[in-house]
TrEMBL record, chain A:
One of its GO terms (biological process) is transmembrane transport. The keyword Coiled coil does not apply. It comes from Amnibacterium kyonggiense. This is Carbohydrate ABC transporter membrane protein 1 (CUT1 family). Keywords: Cell membrane, Membrane, Transmembrane, Transmembrane helix, Transport. Pfam families: BPD_transp_1. InterPro entries: ABC_transporter_permease, MetI-like, MetI-like_sf. Residues 81-293 form the ABC transmembrane type-1 domain.
TrEMBL record, chain B:
It comes from Amnibacterium kyonggiense. Residues 86-275 form the ABC transmembrane type-1 domain. The chain crosses the membrane at residues 21-44, 85-109, 121-142, 148-170, 208-229, 258-280. The keyword Cell membrane applies. Gene3D superfamilies: MetI-like. It holds the Pfam family BPD_transp_1. This is Multiple sugar transport system permease protein/alpha-1,4-digalacturonate transport system permease protein. GO terms for cellular component: plasma membrane. The keyword Flavoprotein does not apply.
C-alpha cells in the first residue's frame, strides 16, 4: 500500500523531510540544549580539569597524566574501587534475589495482598538522606534498636559503627531497603505476564512446583531480569547519599566508595584535578553501562 | 471434575484443599514477616519522633511507646527555619517537574514521530547521560554554575536538575503508541507540529504526564548530592540538606532529627500512596519491555 503511493512522490517527500528537520530540531532544542550546557560542557571541563593540578578554586596548571599516575598509586582509591565493586555486586544480587522472592510470594491470591504490596514499595518514596538517618538510629551501637533486638533473642551485639565489615553491611542493608520495592514491582509485572494458563498447562503435563518455576517461570523472567540488572548496577555503583550520611565513608575508609571519595577530594580537601580524574574513571564505567543500556533499549524497541 | 462420587476421591479432594490452605497460610505469614521488616524503620522513625528522649535512652527495649509527645516537633520549629526549607523544597521540586516534563515531552514527540538527520545519534547521546553520576562532573559543574552567576540562587539547583533524559526516554516510548495515522491526518488538515503536539499528543498523553510529573517531583524532593554542593546558604536549603544540617547541629539527639525526618518523608509517602496505582502500571509497562 505505501510502496505504491511512495514511488511517484519521492521528490516532494525529500523536500518535506528537510522542512521537518527544522521543526524537529525546534522540539528537541530545549531539552538537548539544557543537557549540553549542564552535562556535556561540564563533562569536557572534567576531562580538562583531570589534566591539571589545582589549588582551591583558582586556575590550574597543566600536568598531563599526573593525576592518573597518582590514582594508580593511591591505596585509598583502590580501596574505594573495591568497595564500589563489592557493594554493587551485593546490592544488585540481593535486590534481584529478594525482589523475585517477594514477587513470587505476592503473586498468589493472598489476603490483604494490595496492602502488603503497598508496604513493600513504600521506601521508594523515602529520601535517601532520611533513610540513612533512620539507619543511623537503628544501627546505633549503643542506643540502637537493632542491637537491643539481637540481644533480646540472645545474640551478641554487632559493632555496626566501629567495625569495618558490619558498617559496610549496614550500608548495603539500607540501600537494599530502598531498592527492594522497585525490583519486586518489575518482577510482579513480569510474573503477571507469564499468565495462569501457561502454568496450568505445565501442571497438567505433570510438572511439580519446583519444575514449574525452573522451566516455565524463570525463562519467562529473562527480559525483566536483564532490565533490572542494568538499572540496579547503574544505581548501586553511584550510591552516594547513604554512604555520605550513614557512615561518612568510615570507619577507616571501610565504606568509602568512588563517588564519596571523589566528593571528598573535590569539596573537602579541594584537590579538584584529582577529583576530576576520579570522575573520569567513573565516566568510563558509566559509558560501559550506557552501551549495555542502549543495546537493551534497542532490542526492546525491536520486539515492540 | 468437582463431583466427587466415591469416598476415596472425596477424601483426596479435602486433603488437597487442606494442603492448599496451609500453603496460603504459610505464604501469607512469610509476606507479613517481610512487610513488618520493611515497615519497621518507618514505624521506628515515627515512634522516636513522638517519644521523649529518656524513653530512647532508658536502655530497655520498648517497641511500643509508653507515652507520646509533640515536644520534638515544637523544638524543631523553634530552632530551625523549617517552613522556609519546606517552601524551598516545594518550590524547587515543582519548578523542576514543570520544566522537565515540558522539555521531555517536546523532545519525546520529536524522537517518536518526526524523522530528522542525526536523530539516532542525538538520542544515543541523551540516553548516555542517564547512567552518569553527578559526581563525575560535580567540580566542573560547580565552576560552571558559579561563572553563570547561578550560585547563591535556587536556579543553581533547578537548571542542572532539569537537564534530564529520564522522562525523554519514557515520553518517546509512550508516544510511539500514539497512532501515526492520527498525526498524519492532522498534518494533512494543515495543523503545524506545535498544534498537533498541543491538541492531539498532549491530550492522549495524560497518564504519561501524571506519572512523569510525580516521579520528577519525587526525585527532586529527595535529591541530595547536587543540592548539597549548590546550596551553601541556610535560607536556600531544601529539606534533605536542612535535615543533614540539623543532624550535625544536634549531634546524637535522635528525637528531634526523626521529628524533622518525618516532616521530610510524610508528604511524599502520602502522595505515593495516593498515586501508586498510576505509576505502578507505568513501571510495569516499562519493565516488561
Amino acid at each position: 500500500m505505501t510502496a505504491v503511493a511512495a514511488a511517484p512522490s519521492r521528490r516532494p517527500e525529500r523536500r518535506r523531510r528537510h522542512r521537518g528537520d527544522a521543526a524537529a530540531y525546534g522540539f528537541i532544542a530545549p531539552n538537548l540544549g539544557l543537557l549540553a550546557l549542564f552535562v556535556v560542557v561540564p563533562l569536557v571541563g572534567t576531562l580538562v580539569l583531570s589534566l591539571q593540578r589545582t589549588n582551591g578554586f583558582g586556575g590550574g596548571v597543566f600536568v598531563g597524566l599526573e593525576n592518573y599516575a597518582r590514582l594508580f598509586a593511591d591505596p585509598l582509591f583502590w580501596r574505594a574501587s573495591a568497595n564500589t565493586a563489592l557493594s554493587t555486586v551485593l546490592v544488585t544480587g540481593l535486590s534481584l534475589g529478594l525482589g523475585l522472592l517477594t514477587a513470587l510470594l505476592l503473586n498468589a491470591a493472598l489476603p490483604a495482598r494490595a496492602v502488603l504490596r503497598s508496604i513493600l514499595i513504600l521506601p521508594m518514596a523515602v529520601s535517601s538522606v532520611a533513610s540513612a538517618l533512620i539507619g543511623k538510629l537503628v544501627f546505633d551501637e549503643n542506643a540502637g534498636v537493632l542491637n537491643a533486638l539481637l540481644q533480646a533473642v540472645g545474640l551478641p551485639a554487632v559493632s555496626w559503627q566501629s567495625g569495618g565489615a558490619p558498617a559496610f553491611a549496614s550500608v548495603v542493608l539500607v540501600t537494599l531497603w530502598l531498592r527492594l520495592g522497585f525490583n519486586m514491582l518489575i518482577y510482579l509485572a513480569a510474573l503477571q505476564g507469564v499468565g495462569r494458563d501457561l502454568i496450568e498447562a505445565a501442571t497438567l503435563d505433570g510438572a511439580g512446583a519446583r519444575q514449574r518455576i525452573r522451566y516455565v517461570v524463570v525463562p519467562m523472567l529473562g527480559p525483566a531480569t536483564f532490565f533490572l540488572l542494568v538499572i540496579d548496577v547503574v544505581y548501586s555503583f553511584q550510591v552516594f547519599d547513604v554512604v555520605f550520611v550513614l557512615t561518612g565513608g568510615g570507619p577507616q575508609n571501610a565504606t568509602d566508595v568512588l563517588v564519596t571519595y571523589a566528593y571528598q577530594n573535590g569539596f573537602v580537601t579541594r584537590d579538584q584535578g584529582y577529583a576530576a580524574a576520579i570522575g573520569v574513571v567513573l565516566l568510563v564505567v558509566a559509558v560501559v553501562f550506557a552501551v549495555v543500556q542502549w543495546n537493551t533499549s534497542r532490542t526492546r524497541d525491536l520486539t515492540e | 471434575m468437582t463431583a466427587a462420587t466415591t469416598p476415596l476421591t472425596r477424601r483426596r479432594a479435602t486433603g488437597r484443599v487442606a494442603r492448599r490452605r496451609l500453603v496460603v497460610a504459610l505464604r501469607t505469614l512469610a509476606a507479613v514477616v517481610v512487610a513488618i521488616v520493611v515497615a519497621f524503620p518507618l514505624y521506628w522513625m515515627a515512634v522516636v519522633a513522638l517519644s521523649t528522649r529518656s524513653d530512647l535512652l532508658s536502655g530497655s527495649l520498648r517497641l511500643i511507646p509508653s507515652s507520646l509527645t509533640l515536644d520534638n516537633f515544637a523544638r524543631v520549629f523553634e530552632r530551625f527555619p523549617v517552613w522556609t526549607w519546606f517552601g524551598n523544597s516545594v518550590a524547587i521540586a515543582v519548578v523542576v517537574a514543570l520544566i522537565t516534563v515540558t522539555l521531555n515531552t517536546l523532545a519525546g514527540y520529536a524522537f517518536a514521530h518526526l524523522r530528522f538527520r542525526g536523530s539516532t545519534l542525538l538520542f544515543f547521546v541523551a540516553l548516555g547521560t542517564l547512567t552518569l553520576p553527578v559526581q563525575v562532573i560535580m567540580v566542573a559543574l560547580f565552576q560552571l554554575t558559579t561563572s553563570l552567576g547561578l550560585y547563591g540562587s535556587y536556579w543553581a539547583v533547578i537548571l542542572p536538575t532539569s537537564a534530564s533524559a529520564v522522562g525523554l526516554l519514557l515520553s518517546r516510548q509512550f508516544m510511539l503508541s500514539i497512532p501515526r495515522d492520527l498525526i498524519e491526518a492532522a498534518r494533512l488538515d494543515g495543523a503545524g507540529h506545535l498544534r498537533v503536539f498541543r491538541s492531539i499528543v498532549i491530550p492522549l498523553s495524560r497518564p504519561l504526564l501524571a506519572v512523569l510529573f510525580f516521579l520528577t517531583l519525587l526525585a527532586s524532593w529527595n535529591d541530595f548530592a547536587w543540592p548539597l554542593i549548590a546550596l551553601k546558604e541556610n535560607r536556600l536549603f531544601t529539606l534533605p540538606i536542612g535535615l543533614l544540617y540539623l543532624q550535625s547541629e544536634n549531634g546524637p539527639d535522635y528525637n528531634t532529627t526523626m521529628a524533622f525526618a518525618l516532616l521530610d518523608v510524610a508528604p511524599m509517602v502520602v502522595l505515593f500512596l495516593v498515586f501508586q496505582r498510576y505509576f505502578v502500571q507505568g513501571f510495569a509497562r516499562s519493565g516488561i519491555r
